[in-house]
Amino acid sequence: ILMVDEKGKNMKCLTFFLMLPETVKNRSKKSSKKGNSSSSSSSKLPPVCYEIITLKTKKKKKMAADIFPRKKPANTNTSAVQQYHQQNLNNNNTIPAPNWQGLYPTIRERNAVMFNNDLMADVHFVVGPPGGTQRLPGHKYVLAVGSSVFHAMFYGELAEDKDEIRIPDVEPAAFLAMLKYIYCDEIDLAADTVLATLYAAKKYIVPHLARACVNFLETSLSAKNACVLLSQSCLFEEPDLTQRCWEVIDAQAELALKSEGFCDIDFQTLESILRRETLNAKEIVVFEAALNWAEVECQRQELTATIENKRKVLGKALYLIRIPTMALDDFANGAAQSGILTLNETNDIFLWYTAAKKPELQFVSKPRKGLVPQRCHRFQSCAYRSNQWRYRGRCDSIQFAVDKRVFIAGFGLYGSSCGSAEYSAKIELKRQGVILGQNLSKYFSDGSSNTFPVWFEYPVQIEPDTFYTASVILDGNELSYFGQEGMTEVQCGKVTVQFQCSSDSTNGTGVQGGQIPELIFYA
Prior knowledge:
Blueprint: E1 2-3, E2 14-18, H1 21-34, H2 39-43, E3 49-53, H3 64-67, H4 75-89, H5 107-113, E4 123-127, E5 134-138, H6 140-146, H7 148-155, E6 164-167, H8 172-184, H9 194-203, H10 207-219, H11 226-235, H12 239-251, H13 253-258, H14 267-275, H15 283-300, H16 307-314, H17 328-333, H18 343-354, E7 374-377, E8 379-383, E9 395-402, E10 406-414, E11 421-431, E12 434-445, E13 451-462, E14 468-475, E15 482-486, E16 489-492, E17 495-501, E18 518-522
Helix pairs in contact: 6-7, 8-9, 9-10, 11-12, 15-16
């Protein structure tokens, strides 16, 4: 190889000498006929041809990622690259191609090829509990670069030289997700493995992956999984996630308590929920949820789900249920007949409801504070006219967006301008055409210009920076008050609400005037 430049002066170019196999073979035959030529002379044949290829140099040095932007490989190599990527999904597959490095232009891509690959592996992990293990290959240098725990394990003062390491407390899928992040710099999370991945990231101190897991959990948080995530967030010491879980549990308490996930929580989490002052639920719902948890807990402890065993597993947590604050009908038809209370407790609670001199109770008798709803009023004034506002099955609708996560509990609506009247209201909340909540109820207006609340069955979670559509179809007195001087943006406490017109509105409601003067929400 000769290094020259384009003019043949400076050493800035490459000259490649190419030996053709057929020509070498022919020359070898000729040399053998002469008889006086040694075997060494035939091996030192001069090149039969050469080609000069000029490679222009650049002043500024660049990394491979700058020179080769990420894009699809050429058609000739596409199948090979896809084949190697597929191999990485399977365990113990080596790369057969002799020059696989040439298929990947960047160090990141070449490093990713080693993910879950036995090629050059110098350690193996047996991951998972007994009976469900998976043997995964690893490369000590790559792992040590990605985790301080692996660094100490392989290169620390107390490092052990083991070819196989057993990890029974981590699920194989979660361990693979962590390895994929370390090798490929890619975060691949799934709803059914994200908690196990968070555990692995915490155990091996991979903070960026752990943060991604927490973000994933926050965005997928709902009433159905809030109780389970609350339990896990306390275990993993993630205060931000814990706070988000409490926000959902407080606002959508009845949905959270009725979810299947509530029965999967540990005893400490159960106690913290039953103590919660701001739990926005009827006490009979709290009582029934506790009994459901007790039944599942009996199964976990391999006990028969009898009344005695349910009370046993509940222990002192039973007295955190505020039974004396239930409506009398709820107590008489529910808690009193459940069998979970002793005869003396049942009699004392009945006396608590009816007697002037109330007995002392072990149960908490002070009602929960719950949540105070906030009201966002979007009109600066209201009015009525003899020819407005009429209702003949048409829809009043408005779109809104918030800058913080809130829970819409209902709408405030105007009533009759011609004295007292009763209205039937069908309210609806949609996002991109999908119904998130709806309810059909009645409200009574007293003829004043006040607004009257109409509630959803359960509060609806609203994500920030997305427009939602609030709609109502009213049936009742045709003439009512309506709003004027509407605002496109309203500051309500720490929440900013923006409004815009909706194409669903067929009765005249818009930003400047009409119905739905208030959004009622928890924040």
